[in-house]
Amino acid sequence: MAAASCSTASPSRAWPATIARKGVVRTFQNVRLFKEMTALENLLIAQHRHLNTNFFAGLFKTPGFRRSEHEAMEYAQYWLEKVDLVEFANRNAGTLAYGQQRRLEIARCMMTRPRILMLDEPAAGLNPKETEDLKALIGTLREEHGVTVLLIEHDMKLVMSISDHIVVINQGTPLADGTPQQIRDNPEVIKAYLGKRKCCSSKTFPPSTARSRRCTASTWRFARAKSSP
Predict the structure, then answer these.
(1) Least confident of 45-54, 55-64, 102-111, 216-225
(2) How far is CA 81 from the centre of its chain?
(3) pLDDT digits (tens, 9 = 90+) for 113-131
(4) What sign has the CA pseudo-torsion 158, 22, 78, 40?
(5) H-helix segments, 9-121
(6) CA–CA separation, 153 vs 160, rounded Å?
(7) How far apart are CA 59 and CA 65, in angstroms?
(8) Which residues of 9-46 are buried (b: 16+ CB within 10 A; e: fewer)?
(9) Rounded CA separation 48/54 (Å)
(10) Rounded Cα–Cα distance for residues 180 and 200 (Å)
């Protein structure tokens, strides 16, 4: 879906680098970091498009080359601070806790200065505290950096709390779309997730049913990404 919107080529032929240049990046359901590199190196390598990679500039360490390296380091440090990983900057990514790896992966995406960030089940495997931290981070991406977040997630409490617009998919078929309140009150959604009897006092869907189906939540705020401080 994302590839079709970013390239005139068919989705199967669109190179990831081409899509990233269009401002669309993603994380994966399974964390995909360079585990033998440090957290800092993971963020630096993701900035290759924004660095001065001229051979002679690097060979002679020109002022432009040094300035480019300094800016990349500052930007990486900025996002390490945003995801609370400054003290782990020089640790190999593979040695970080699972929740920390999740946050580092999002920070690595932000190195590309995206306009649209797609997160594939980012809360999977996180404890309640880490999920709350993820919620706060997504809010920061939207409000402070103007990034549109497209989220695929089973955690209905998280989905309902951060989304402007939700698309519900039941057994591979679109079931409903609308605001969180519209989705919460939709009879078809209630039937699919809760059975025919509606629990009037329920504000969210039970975790047991939330895990059994997939809900796609999107912020649908196609704001242009802003430069971070």
Answers:
(1) 216-225
(2) 17
(3) 889 999 999 998 889 999 9
(4) positive
(5) 16-21, 39-45, 55-59, 63-82, 98-110
(6) 11
(7) 9
(8) eeeeebeeeebbebbbbbbeeebebeeeebbbbbbbeb
(9) 11
(10) 16
